[in-house]
From TrEMBL:
<comment type="function">
    <text>Part of the twin-arginine translocation (Tat) system that transports large folded proteins containing a characteristic twin-arginine motif in their signal peptide across membranes. Together with TatB, TatC is part of a receptor directly interacting with Tat signal peptides.</text>
</comment>
<keyword id="KW-0813">Transport</keyword>
<feature type="region of interest" description="Disordered">
    <location>
        <begin position="251"/>
        <end position="302"/>
    </location>
</feature>
<protein>
    <recommendedName>
        <fullName>Sec-independent protein translocase protein TatC</fullName>
    </recommendedName>
</protein>
<keyword id="KW-0812">Transmembrane</keyword>
<keyword id="KW-1133">Transmembrane helix</keyword>
<feature type="transmembrane region" description="Helical">
    <location>
        <begin position="221"/>
        <end position="243"/>
    </location>
</feature>
<keyword id="KW-0811">Translocation</keyword>
<dbReference type="GO" id="GO:0043953">
    <property type="term" value="P:protein transport by the Tat complex"/>
</dbReference>
<feature type="transmembrane region" description="Helical">
    <location>
        <begin position="78"/>
        <end position="102"/>
    </location>
</feature>
<comment type="similarity">
    <text>Belongs to the TatC family.</text>
</comment>
<feature type="compositionally biased region" description="Acidic residues">
    <location>
        <begin position="256"/>
        <end position="268"/>
    </location>
</feature>
<keyword id="KW-0653">Protein transport</keyword>
<feature type="transmembrane region" description="Helical">
    <location>
        <begin position="164"/>
        <end position="185"/>
    </location>
</feature>
<keyword id="KW-1003">Cell membrane</keyword>
<dbReference type="Pfam" id="PF00902">
    <property type="entry name" value="TatC"/>
</dbReference>
<feature type="transmembrane region" description="Helical">
    <location>
        <begin position="197"/>
        <end position="215"/>
    </location>
</feature>
């Protein structure tokens, strides 16, 4: 298609994706309190203070945090933020399909098959990372609030808690995609499994440093909780890559199948000088006039 048609198609697909996100966000706005409670549940369940201060015990006194909101526009801003996040998540099948429908016509058949396979594997990995971070947050919150001096109550702004939980889910979800990226490089022939295995010391150190900077919190619990599963997934990716290299090597040694065409050697070779052929009987000699060779008495026109 011409460039103008591509831009027109991109505009239409973006419009459909934005409309789906806005529609889901409007619906989520009616339930934003329940959604906000679901997002903040890991922290409020572990560090939330009871309504009555006298009900505090020695067990939860050091890990107590009071959920607060500030400002007249705070609740409205929170409602907009929660609704938009919920709209993006709920409308993800629609805008992901629009993205795929725009890109897929430019892919070959095998590229389209590989893309669908990696997307099918990437979605569960992202969900697993988000679920893991959702269940790691209570322990991280207890560790952080454990440094609170006795008799002091932490004021935890609700909007900051939602931002923290959202960032943790996104960071953990994207980090779980690293092994899939390595497997993709191996399947494309760029990286071998043996070379990946040789990087295991540097990979462990790099993942640990990455986890220290990637986690929004600075506690060792969150850092180790992110680094440990990524290292485990890395070794799983190494095993898959080694098996794929072995399968590829066995296929190359076996040669082409009975119903498969063998590879042609298209390397050009020097055939030497070509001697001119005289005209055959009954055909007069024709001069090429600088335009054609005398081959069988015919020039390039006849």
């Amino acid at each position: 298609m011409p460039l103008s048609d591509h831009l027109r198609e991109l505009r239409n697909r973006l419009a459909k994706a934005v409309f789906a996100i806005l529609l889901c966000a409007i619906v989520a706005a009616f339930y934003y309190k329940d959604i906000a409670g679901l997002i903040t549940k890991p922290i409020t369940r572990s560090v939330g203070c009871p309504d009555n201060f006298h009900e505090l015990t020695s067990k939860n006194a050091d890990t107590c945090g009071q959920i607060t909101m500030s400002g007249l526009m705070g609740p409205f801003t929170l409602m907009i933020k929660v609704s938009m996040v919920a709209g993006v998540v709920a409308a993800s099948p629609v805008w992901l399909y629009q993205l795929w429908a725009f890109v897929s016509p430019g892919l070959h058949k095998h590229e389209r098959r590989y893309s669908l396979s990696f997307v099918a594997a990437g979605v569960p990995l992202f969900v697993a990372g988000g679920w893991f971070s959702y269940h790691v947050l209570p322990a991280a919150a207890e560790v952080l609030l454990g440094f609170t001096p006795s008799g002091v109550t932490n004021l935890l702004p609700l909007n900051e808690i939602i931002d923290l939980v959202t960032r943790m889910i996104i960071v953990f979800g994207l980090s779980f995609e690293l092994p899939l990226f390595l497997v993709m490089l191996n399947f494309s022939g760029i990286l071998t499994g043996r070379r990946m295995l040789g990087w295991w010391r540097g990979m462990i150190m790099g993942v640990t440093v990455f986890a220290a900077f990637a986690t929004p919190t600075v506690d060792p619990v969150s850092m180790l909780s992110l680094a440990t599963p990524i290292v485990g997934l890395y070794f799983i990716a190494v095993i898959i890559s080694i098996l794929n290299d072995k399968r590829r090597r066995e296929r190359a040694e076996a040669g082409p199948a009975d119903d498969e065409a063998s590879e042609l050697d298209l390397t050009p070779e020097d055939v030497g000088a070509v001697e001119p052929v005289s005209a055959g009987p009954g055909l007069p000699e024709q001069s090429d006039g600088g335009r054609s060779a005398k081959l069988n008495g015919y020039d390039d026109i006849t």
